[in-house]
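Posted in: Structural Biology > Protein-Ligand Complexes

Title: Requesting predicted complex, iron/sulfur cluster in pocket

I'd be grateful if someone could produce the 3D structure tokens for the following input. Sequence and ligand are given below.
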Amino acid sequence: MKAKHQGELTFGTIEPFTGLKRALNMKRSEIIVEISASRMRGRGGAGFPTGTKWNLAAAAISDKKFVVCNADEGEPGTFKDRVILQEFPDLVFDGMTIAGKAIGARRGILYLRAEYTYLLAHLESVLQKRREQGFLGNTIDGHDDFSFDISIRMGSGAYICGEETALIESMEGFRGEPRNRPPYPVDTGFYNNPTVVNNVETFAWAASILTKGADWFNQVGTDKSTGFKLFSISGDVDRPGVYEFPLGITVEELLKEVGGVNAKAVQIGGASGHCIPASQFQRTVAFEDVSTGGSIIVFGPHRDMLEVADNFLDFFVEESCGQCTPCRVGNVKLLEGVKMLRDGNCSMTYLKELIQLGETMQTSSKCGLGQSSPNAFLSIVEHFKSEIMGRVNF
Ligand SMILES: Cc1cc2nc3c(=O)[nH]c(=O)nc-3n(C[C@H](O)[C@H](O)[C@H](O)COP(=O)(O)O)c2cc1C
Ligand code: SF4
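-- Reply #1 --
Done. Output follows.
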């Protein structure tokens, strides 16, 4: 299985505007059928089927609908969307415009993370050029029945604003706090209008699928996780960077490609993902096994796994929006517990309570942040028992 490194990505072989031009000559329902037939699942992490999402938004009855590109990319260890925005912005805007036609929206918004402000001028100039070429604005490419334009909204540096409902709150000018779901954005999104929120990579693949066809995409990967996926690979590897692999690659194969064969653990899915020990490197990176929005952090044999847990929990204490108690208080207590373990001050009884606390947070937190923030701690305690038990004060 050959890895594609930055510079050789499939996106570089897709001619911009080709998929869009094809979609402009299709019926709305035909576009959704093509995306559904590809069986693509969203590339932002949760893996929701893109065709289903677009279909729900298309079916919603409203004269105002929105397409939002989630370019918040705040998950620690993720940097693939930055590369896509920098190198293939036309594919992302093609995908947004295709989604606009499919669901019946006239407006798209790219929500760009604050740390990517340096990309703003570049992206604005690409948008302006598209307007001059007739691919944004009124009657797209001469099609009287379809007008669509895209604007850019800046984030302010909060990780929680990557969660789609917090992102919408932030775009409306409120604090970035997640909403209760349901209702979902496809139904009640931006200013309560039906809104499709997709990841940067999802839109670029949507444009690629319209260019090359659903079969080209769904013949790669596994039955439940079709297609190619971009990964941001960092940590203790010889060749870190952005890579493309078919979904379903094993962790072992992936480590071989990036020069990380001596790894003792791999954090898949960023700080909120799972820590996989060497004994499980045969597992596959796919939605049905170990899923990820693209962040892969590799830990070499010398790493202290409690330091890893400490680092991630410190991030979540900082980034919790504070709206619900399990997450607001739970992350602080887990972080304190990890520090006690590191100092040799944590008893076995208290360690068990910390594990129960983590499990409670997974089931009782309001949004994905608190539901997944204990993952790293829990998987490290489970898989690195000898390292942890040596630090417990019995
Ligand atoms: C705390 C949190 C942060 C998130 N950050 C991002 C992000 O930066 N980018 C992203 O695409 N999705 C992020 N998501 C997932 C989004 O809520 C949403 O599922 C995604 O944008 C949908 O796009 P997709 O279907 O194309 O994957 C985050 C979710 C949570 C709970
Ligand atoms: S889980 Fe955390 S981030 Fe999500 S709503 Fe609750 S406090 Fe906010």
